[in-house]
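User: Second chain of the day. Same drill as before.
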Amino acid sequence: MKRIFSPGKLMLTSEYVAVDGALVLAVPTKLGQEFFFTEEKDGKSLIYWNAYHQDQLWLETVIDYKTWTIIKTNDQKASVFILKVLKNVQELSDIKFKSDISYHFKTNLQFPPDFGLGSSSTLMSNLGEWAEIDPFVLNEISLGGSGYDVAVAKEKSAILYSRFPERVYEKVIFDPKFKDDLIFIHLNQKQDTREGISHYRSKPTSTELINEYSELTKMIVKSKNLEEFSQLMTIHEQKLSDFLGIPTVKEKYFQNCPSFVKSLGAWGGDFGLTSKFGDYEAYFKKQGFDKIFSWRELIN
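Assistant: Same format as last time:
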């Protein structure tokens, strides 16, 4: 079987405000999603889909793409989603799902699904490359969202990304000299991004806020040292907390932490970013957070 790979992502700046066009800094993770495929000229027009989480099979389904019906599955809800996405692929593609060929697919998500590193965006990127279609369009009609995560998966690089007035992004090198002082803390739960965006949308759109976050992102990319980076991250976190009316992750979990702590992505779950201090491992483990990663362990 042939293989395609797309990396996961972490959004370092402009969470929520990204949907209104604020400039985003996002970085690729070492782990991502593998996509294996082969075709069989058997005249049956079937899709055999096997999905794995960290090499453990969790979804097995067979779909007839002539009638778009699920013939066999061990998870109806997940299979309905896969059917929807693949039907969108058919509509966008000039070459896939057009004949009586059967397709055998295997996906393998290399990270735990509750890490929030982009199980869907990596799938959109992989399918886009396989079917030779625009993964941003596939993502838009299948899921929605700002699309920054698809850009990271597609480019396999750190990016600066803006959604409005049109999608514009560029690959950047973000390799801070102080990266070995940075750590990521998994917050033991996956936050619902759509729910978070809905809360953000309930607030009046602020052009001033969008511009402020774009400027903050540019400053963060250019940070010369840990002190400057820490100050900017603290400003970033507090400003969004004030706008959303939601406590920061530091206020919620780590009030006496001697370093900045910044939420990454939807607030309340997934990962937080901070810097090393004293016996930081013992501190976070005492608070109940024992999944701690260095920059080099997580970021590609």
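The longest helix spans residues 226-244.

User: Great, on to the next one.
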